[in-house]
Amino acid sequence: MTLRPPRSSLGHVAVTQKVRDGAWRVVELITTPVVPADYLDVIAPLRNPTVLRARIDAVRPETAKAVTLVLRPGRGWQPHRPGQYVRLGVDVDGVRLWRAYSVSSAAGRADGRFTVTVNAVENGVVSSYLLKNARKGMLVHLDLPDGEFLLPEQRPAKALFVTAGSGITPVMGMLRSALHELSDVVVVHSARTAEDVVFGAELRDLAAQGRIRLIERHTLADGRLKPDGLADLVPDLFERETWACGPGQLLDDLEEHWADAGVADRLHIERFRTVVLVAGDGGTVTFEKSGLVVDAPGGTSILEAGEAAGQLMKSGCRMGICYKCVLPMREGIVRDLRDGTITTASEVDGDKPLIQTCISAAAGPCRIDA
Amino acid sequence: MTTLQRKEVNPIAHLSPEDIEQIGRELDAIRDEVLAVRGEKDAKYIRRVIAIQRRLEVGSRAVLLFSVFPPAWILGTIGLSISKILENMEIGHNILHGQYDFMRDPKIHSTTWEWDFAAPAEQWKHSHNELHHKYTNVIGRDNDLGYGIMRVDEQQKWAPAHLGQPLYNFINACLFEYGIAAYDLELGRNLSSKRRRNNPDFRARLRQVGRKIRNQMLKDYVAHPALSVPVGLAFGNPFGAFFGTLAANVVANVVRNLWSHSVIMCGHFPNGVETFERTSITGETRGEWYLRQMLGSANISGSKLMHIMTGNLSHQIEHHCFPDLPASRYAEIAPKVRALFEKYELKYVTGPFVVQVASAWSKVFRLAFPNRKPARPIDHAVPPRHPAEVSV
């Protein structure tokens, strides 16, 4: 928000604007070839209006495998709506990796901060890094909050939340934001054991106060939750507006169950990462802008495979030293033909690494933004 | 097969094709070792150098606001010169090589970086990364050899115009940033005919250079001098302030030009560095490419500070073998690379800065004149000899 001078006349405003633009151009000239913000970054990284960052203000362990980060976002942040996620860019061993995390705090906190709760994923590079290394004062990169897993403005009379594992995080954000506006809430949550329940104490507290009905299922002892079992636990489930978040299998089962009952529109789901990329040999390469699809063998560079199929591609040295051929990979997995290094990209994380097409071969299906 | 520009002695005559491929494999192994540890340390390093350079630049420019006072002028000019050298060498050159692309930080990336230099990054990356680093020291392909204006090898034909090459080289050194911009534009070639002059691609690149130079000049020679005028006014000498700061910027740019020109001359011009025949690189293998980089480059020995100020181009041999590895790792791998040279009886050309600069300049002077002995046409029937076989 900028303060504008009183509008005595439109001409006056235009002149002020012109002077301001001119002054800004001079400032830009003083710092050319970089922008003024690049100098500001050295001392005040949260003040950069074009690069959104956040500082970790506190780190709170939740369970042995989950940790909550209290984040103070910098300039340019826009508040989230309960249930949304935010993408965090974390420098893991010097490499910026992006992952999406649900916001777990209530919306509209007076201090402008928000929290995400990170659950360790098996072989998860970023989650295990944050669990081990997140410290007060650390900087992370951010994207604006996003996602359609939301409570409607018109709050439902009866609500059901079905969650498993880390799927509780967006639901916790919703409960913390809007529980006072909901009168009849059932939460069915699955976790391996009672100790593994993230926000366990808070949920049990809410249940004890009678503000929610909490059904905990400990899968190590009781086995995985099936939709039939859910109907036994919550007999009126189809009368309820339902939000579900958890592993893909659970969500698939629920979708089928709700569709069979003809009430698919009452079920809202949020899927976390669905694909685990495993390096193979060769793969289908899709050039998204041209629509070209190529079957690229594991020993052929994406550049050569694309060119052979008629894709127009930039190239320079064709031996991996000049970086002229780089293209963003939206999703997929490639192998460096020189040293075998694997690079992956996932649409969910929105991370589009630039890959050197002249020395990268497909190691699975790839979608290239070109 | 890589063949040296044929001389009477051939430093690779003793290597079999299998040896050459083995050298390539051993260099690949060194590269893999660095890749295995490349990470947070390298990211921290480049961010730190950038932070230091930006603080130094802002600090020096702040001191130069008081350029009417001689001590402030001297201090500010020294600081600004160092800052510009750091920005071009250890930061700009290395980032534009993609050495830090692995960080996936869009702010520190070869595709987004722009540097404080007349040549636009995009054009420089083409002529430097794509041409010079691929065709290193191949006569007729690598324009870095003499920058197209000098005779740098005995086998090149002498012409009377070469008498002036020490002078051209000195002028090029003083105006190095513009020399490089002209070189990236291939100005000589592209101005030679009307068809080339009117080529829309050339004209677009020419405009891009024009814009870059205009902004650079406005910054250094107008905006910053103007900022010192208020202080000058307060002390009754606004003109002194303006022109003092202007002079400081000119000096800093010239110092940076002379320094980078000298460092770069040391990279490929000193005695002992080999050149290669144009036809020799068809079908070149990876091992042969590595070998050409090893024989076509020369190092500068010196302190850690020396290495940083040269952007680690003092490790030119390591840089040419591994142009995309973080330059601050070159010192670490240099002993291994040097051991490889010794194992295969190759000459690792290195020496102190002053010696290497003198060696490069003496070559510029020597080759300004015709060869003393008329260049003997090479008898391709006689196999070249290894240096050890040639009695001195």
From TrEMBL, chain A:
One example of the protein's molecular function in GO is: metal ion binding
FAD-binding FR-type domain boundaries: 49-152
Q: Which Pfam families match?
A: FAD_binding_6, Fer2, NAD_binding_1
Q: Which residues form a coiled coil?
A: none
Keywords attached to this Swiss-Prot or TrEMBL record, sorted alphabetically, are: 2Fe-2S, FAD, Flavoprotein, Iron, Iron-sulfur, Metal-binding, Oxidoreductase
What cofactor(s) does the depicted protein rely on? FAD
- Full protein name: Ferredoxin-NADP reductase
UniProtKB/TrEMBL annotation, chain B:
Q: Name one Pfam family in it.
A: FA_desaturase
One example of a Gene Ontology biological process annotation: lipid biosynthetic process
The answer, when asked if Ion transport is one of the entry's keywords, is: no
Residue ranges of domain Fatty acid desaturase in the record: 77-350
Highest taxon, organism lineage:
Bacteria
A cellular component term from Gene Ontology for this protein is:
membrane
Q: Name one GO molecular function term.
A: oxidoreductase activity, acting on paired donors, with oxidation of a pair of donors resulting in the reduction of molecular oxygen to two molecules of water
Which InterPro entries does the entry mention?
FA_desaturase_dom, Fatty_acid_desaturase
Q: Which residues cross the membrane?
A: 62-82
Keyword Kinase part of the UniProt annotation = no
Keywords on record: Membrane, Transmembrane, Transmembrane helix
Name this protein carries in UniProt: Linoleoyl-CoA desaturase
Which species is this record about?
Answer: Actinoplanes xinjiangensis
Record lineage:
Bacteria, Bacillati, Actinomycetota, Actinomycetes, Micromonosporales
